[in-house]
Amino acid sequence: MDSTEYCDENKLTLFQNLIGMLRWTCELGRIEILHEVSLLSQYLAKPRIGHLIQAISIFGYLEKFKDRWLVMDPQRYEIDLIPMDDEPSPEIRAEELRKIYIDSEEYLPHNMPKALGNEVDINVFVDADHAGNKITHRSHTGIVIYCNCSPIIWFSKRQNTVET
Hints:
By secondary structure, this protein is α+β, with helices and mostly antiparallel strands. Helices cover 33% and strands 19% of the residues.
């Protein structure tokens, strides 16, 4: 809901360059700024002075915390699943599924290579704000996919449609 004046041609080019650099910074592993950069990216065509100031302040944050890095951690998550009051435990749920799908089995390729090394866990974390944009009422979704404790894929995206 920025109400400052629109950027002139020089500031528009500066804003677009800054957002381009910030996007590359996210690609290189600084995922803590991904959501903010994604939100500012929607104003690439016609940014306001306030948007430019916010982009510059992200660079200030990066300068202040320049010693941060992305850690590739091979440890596995230990997630304790706590069932809701009316939800069965994971063990009961798995047993119920076995009763429904009696003949099911996992098909593995006959020429599958022997597994080497330790097992890995793939965990996906997703969150969205419902109609977070006050003007268009579009939602914004963020997804991070982990292999064990290491983030391997991440993105933050404005949804194309409005949820009703």
